[in-house]
Give the backbone structure.
Amino acid sequence: SASYWEGKFKFPAVPKMVLSLQEGKDDFDDSVFGYNAADGFFLKMVYRYTLTGAHQGKVLFDLMQWKGVGQGIKHWFPVRAGREFAVSFYHLADMYDAQDDYQLQATWHEQKGNLTYDLGGKYYDLGYPEYGLRGNFNYRSDQWLASFQGETGQSGLSPQFYLYPCRLDVSWRPGPRTRLTYRNNIYYREDLTTAEVITKKYQNDLEFWQTWDLFSLEGFEFTARLKQNYDYSDRYARQFYHDLPALSFQTPAIDLGSPGYYQGNVDFLRLVEIKGEDEKVGTRTDLQLARRPLGRSLWQQGGFTLDLANNNRYQLYQVAGETFRRSAVSIGLTGTQRFTPSLTWTNTLSWVEAQGEAPTAEFPRLVTSSHLFMPGGHLSSSWRYNTRVVSASLTGGYNFGRVDQPWYPVQGMLTITPMPNSSIRLNATYNPNIREYTDLYLTARGQHTSEEGNRFYLEADYDLLERRWDALEVEAKLKNRLTATLQSDLSLRYSFFGDDFERARLGMTYDWHCREVFFGYDFLRKEYIVQLQYKIFKEAGFGYGSGEQGFMWTGADRWGTGAGNEIW
């Protein structure tokens, strides 16, 4: 028999842990005690074993107040270096439903050069069948970064087919002048009994950027973009717009001699509008040739510069078989006052000759820059401020030749970059003619990994006028030492595209001399756990929610910690 002594106090013998010592190995797991609404109070124990050769595994033994007794085994088979193959089997004599539940899983892990991937399959008999396949691929090299996460199968008492997550991220950067990024996200769920589509979402975002030199001219630039964002459940409530594609070509500023420096732009957009079963397609082609204030100016005094201004614009629209054309030529003077290296104020006084029309009634979302295609005298003004952390601009103008709606839209942009790979941007457009905001949009991006291993990821797009999230992805794994003996542990994932909160765990570790006591709470499972670890076994350790203490065996609703649902 065995007893446990804490100082001079003797505690009853409880199956805390079983050791099978093997040199250089972590051969034990700490038992976990806890409570959740489905299982009641539970105690989960794990015993590791090692057989001849490389055969090894774990035996799981779970005691659950309201479910009964569960037993399982997870065995690793010997395979070549860089590979892992494991098969798991679990049985639960479910007292609540008076039935036997069975779970079978198989996993494969391999690292081959720059490629690391995991494959898995599962089959559960819970009184009804559940099965699934998943894959996780990661490839990293000097030029390529690629990852794919996918899971598909059948789940639920009322059987549903699901495909989620299904994410592909690719980044190719062969050099400083070329960049290709692609992101794909799919979520699909269907009721197999009624064939009803429950969830259907997809996102596609591809962007290619290239610069090059031609003869003695440096800085030609080409950008191509494809963008789709669709939610089947909202198809009748609002419009969805897809850029298929958006192309842009820009020349460097070219010295034409006495006329000065001119820069050319050609932009093409094919815009698709979808609402319900209706679909509208329109194209816009923009051509622009503009004089740039480079080289010798007309007059310069201190921080003030006066120069000629000339802009030539042409737009071609095609909507529903109709063609619309309009053009504008502006000539004037531009004055720029540089107050500091970061702050400038530019005013342009010009005369504009314009003709043609645009499909403002047929496809208003496709039409752009209409205030620049109005004849008459124009005054435009812009403030710009740029530092390493803050970038801001404010632009507007007035058309002296118009009685109705003479004001330009007032456009403001504020970007804050507190650290690399992290930024917050606010875009706002205000129409003084109708005294309303026409655009108010907030974008936030964040990605950071600390030396201590803390990781944080944020992607957020919010329309403040519509009060609608277009994107919200948050993932965090944070450890913070609160005091000399107390440390917090947060694991969180929220996906607006997916199932909202997909992971939400908070833990506290208390350093108790040669032991550590862990208190944890899973907000989704509404589960409390307590775990005691002895620090004398330095190579051993527990990770809350790692699945090794039996979390993967209760309810069978997720793959362990949801490995396929994580960004990292």
Notes: Residues 13-21, 538-568 have pLDDT under 50 and may be disordered. Residues 240 and 274 are 5 Å apart (CA to CA). The longest strand covers residues 197-214. The two ends are 46 Å apart (CA to CA).
